[in-house]
Structures are given as structure tokens and as C-alpha cells.
Write a structure and sequence with these properties.
Blueprint lengths: L21 E7 L6 E7 L5 E8 L5 E6 L7 E7 L2 E7 L4 E6 L7 E4 L2 H29 L3 H28 L4 H7 L2 E2 L3 E2 L7 H14 L4 H29 L2 E2 L4 E3 L5 E3 H5 L3 E7 L6 H15 L4 E7 L4 H10 L5 E4 L7 H5 L7 E5 L4 E5 L4 H10 L2
Parallel strand pairs: 1-7, 14-15, 15-16
Antiparallel strand pairs: 1-4, 2-3, 2-5, 5-6, 7-8, 9-10, 11-18, 12-13, 14-17, 17-18
Helix pairs in contact: 1-2, 1-3, 2-3, 3-4, 4-5
Length: 383
């Protein structure tokens, strides 16, 4: 899902640990006499950084750091509004130039991993620009035929981006930059490699990175994410087996809606047919699924049908904006913890969308029922 895998670990990224220091120098052409900050970014989004240099009148700078435990590490180099991702290794002398108007924003040399990261960013930069353009056109038209054409083109561009990233990952599987590629996201905070079948690429990268960086904490984080996925798959299999044998009751979750009110799943379900729906606002097909759910909700709500929709997003403004724009009439909740949400872990959600349908007694009677399948299940429950 995005939000499916957290594959880096928090580090003490700017400590002085001795060893061969890294030199970073270059120019932020549009940032004269401003602070240059080097940040280390953890998997959970935490950032550790310090002001290490100041540019001169021409935007030039130079700094030296020691890497934590002399291990290659992920960084962001920032000056004003410009941010450049780097993967630094001991002893490197890295030259970075950020030039306004340059099509990809910056150049980097002297760091093999950082040069590979730039390739990843360029794949995403051009593809995401196309997606943004298509999304803008889609929002401005109400013509169904045109919307379908745009949606088809959106899917094509999305797949092109993913194919390019897969090619990069397979080619550079033994590099830390492949981990960076696995963490790429498209508009709406949707992880490019969040699908249940994408685990193959995580395993490939873990196996190959182990050969080049056997002591890297990033490798440990990657293996931990794979273990988490395996546990989720095992949990899913247990649910499938239980469903095959007999209906199963569900665990409790309690999450706040956009107004801050805690919504208890068990309280909402009492005596009702309930659909527990996991989704993300960035899913290109979400508007269509929500439109179908609206029709079913209008038909069965007065008869005792409720929807408890859990967003796995991490951005509150994005979630609230979409919920309001689509005028979703049911209970919408989000804790903004993404893959770390207790609800995601309790129900073994490795990717979205996924849903669970409960009868009036609170038993799971169907899973991942969409379209005609969901309509058929509801028809049976409301005979």
C-alpha cells in the first residue's frame, strides 16, 4: 500500500564517528548567503539535521561530515526551497550544483549512489508531471467519455512509471538507490510498490544489498519490512481459512473522524450490516468505487446498512479535501499513521483497497467484495 512498507530505520545521522569523512561542495545558484542543511530521514518520516555551512555571495558552499558507523547513509541536502536527496559513502568527494531552470533541477558527481538516486527522481519527475496534468483535466470535465479516456491514459502512464522503476530496481538491485526507488510515491501519497505482488522486488533488493552492504541498517529495515509483510500474509491466510469454515467475529478498532469524534467499529456495527472498507484518497479508481458505494448506501442505509471507511493516508488535508469533495455520506476515519495504523495491522492489510462485509451478528461473511459481488452479497443479506 504505501503505504505498505516502511523500509528505512531511524539513525543518528549526523554524529561524528571518526573514519573517512565525506566532503560535499558545490553551488546553490539561487541561494546566496544562506544556510545549507544536511538532513537524515528515517523511515517513519522523522528528520534529523543541522546547519553545517553557509553559501557565499555566489551560492557556493563546502562541508565535511562523518557517517554513522562509517555506513553509507541517506541524506537530504537543503538550501532555502531546494532539496537534493543523496546517498553518501565514506571517503567520497561529492560535487552538487543546483541550477534554476535545469530540467531536473540539479547535477551530482562523485557519489555513485547519489547519481543513481537522480535517475530515480527523473523517472518520477516526468511521469508524475503527466499524471498531474491528466488529473487536472479530469477534474475540469464532466463528460463521461472524456473521463474514461483520461482514466485509461492515467493508468497507462502509471504503468509506464512503474515499469521504468522496475527496470531500474532489477538493474541496480544491489545498490541502496534501489531501496530509494522502492519507496517512491505518486500523487496522493500512494506507494508505487505497495501491491501484494511487489514483495518480490523487496526480496530481490534485500538479497542483493546484503552482498554490498551487509552491515547497513537500511538492509535491516528492509528485512524487517519483509517480515512484517510475511506476518500480514499469514494473518490473511488465517482469515481466509476461518471464512471457509464458518463466519468469524472481528477485532475492535476506534479511530477519529474528521471532526475529532472517536468512532468505535463495534458500536457502529451493532445490529447492522457493515462494510469495513480500507482505501487511500490517491487511488485513481477510488472515485469510481465510492460512486458505486454511494448507490448501495442510498439503497440499503435505511434498512440497516452502514459503511466504516478507513483511510490509510498520512496527510489530513488531502484526506479531508477528498472526503468533502466526493460528499461521502458514511463514517470516514483516519489516524494518519499509514502502514503503522493499528487498524491496518489488526486486519492484516498489506495493500489497499480491501474490505470486509459483516452481517447483523458481527460475523465476516465476505471479503474484498466489489461491484457485482458486493451487490449480490447485500441482496442476500437484505432479503
Amino acid at each position: 500500500m504505501k503505504k505498505s512498507f516502511a523500509i528505512m530505520v531511524a539513525l543518528g545521522l549526523l554524529c561524528s564517528c571518526g573514519g573517512e569523512r565525506v566532503t560535499i561542495e558545490g553551488e546553490f545558484a539561487a541561494c546566496p548567503n544562506q544556510s545549507v542543511v544536511l538532513e537524515g530521514v528515517g523511515a517513519n518520516g522523522t528528520i534529523e539535521g543541522d546547519t553545517l555551512a553557509t553559501t557565499n555571495n555566489n551560492g557556493q558552499f563546502r562541508l565535511r561530515i562523518s557517517l554513522p558507523n562509517n555506513e553509507s547513509s541517506f541524506y537530504n541536502l537543503r538550501c532555502a526551497e531546494r532539496t537534493i536527496p543523496l546517498i553518501l559513502s565514506k571517503g567520497e568527494r561529492v560535487v552538487v550544483n543546483s541550477v534554476p531552470g535545469l530540467i531536473d533541477g540539479y547535477t551530482v558527481s562523485g557519489s555513485k549512489e547519489s547519481e543513481l538516486v537522480r535517475e530515480v527522481k527523473n523517472i518520477m519527475r516526468f511521469g508524475v508531471a503527466k499524471l498531474d496534468s491528466l488529473a487536472t483535466i479530469y477534474e475540469k470535465t464532466s463528460a463521461k467519455a472524456l473521463q474514461k479516456t483520461i482514466n485509461d491514459e492515467y493508468k497507462k502512464v502509471y504503468l509506464d512509471i512503474k515499469r521504468s522503476q522496475i527496470e531500474f530496481i532489477v538493474t541496480h538491485a544491489g545498490q541502496l538507490a534501489a531501496i530509494y526507488a522502492l519507496n517512491q510515491q505518486i500523487p496522493g501519497d500512494v506507494s508505487l510498490f505497495g501491491g501484494k505482488n511487489d514483495i518480490v522486488y523487496f526480496r530481490l533488493v534485500a538479497d542483493e544489498v546484503a552482498k554490498n552492504y551487509p552491515n547497513s541498517p537500511y538492509l535491516a529495515g528492509l528485512n524487517a519490512a519483509i517480515d512484517e509483510y510475511d506476518r500480514a500474509v499469514e494473518f490473511n491466510n488465517l482469515i481466509e481459512e476461518a471464512l471457509a469454515a464458518e463466519p468469524a467475529n472481528f477485532p475492535e478498532i476506534e479511530i477519529s473522524d474528521m471532526y475529532g469524534k472517536k468512532q468505535s467499529l463495534t458500536e457502529v456495527q451493532k445490529g447492522k450490516v457493515l462494510l469495513l472498507d480500507f482505501w487511500t484518497v490517491g487511488d485513481e479508481n477510488a472515485p469510481f468505487r465510492n460512486a458505486e458505494l454511494k448507490e448501495l448506501y442510498a439503497k440499503y442505509h435505511d434498512k440497516g446498512f452502514e459503511i466504516y471507511q478507513v483511510s490509510v493516508d498520512t496527510s489530513k488535508p488531502a484526506w479531508v479535501e477528498i472526503v468533502q469533495r466526493q460528499k461521502l455520506p458514511w463514517i470516514s476515519v483516519c489516524d494518519f499513521k499509514g502502514a503503522g495504523s493499528p487498524a491496518v495491522q489488526l486486519f492484516g492489510i498489506a495493500s489497499v483497497p480491501q474490505n470486509f462485509l459483516f452481517d447483523r451478528e458481527g460475523n465476516i461473511v465476505a471479503r474484498n467484495a466489489y461491484g457485482d459481488n458486493l451487490t449480490g452479497e447485500l441482496t442476500k443479506l437484505f432479503k
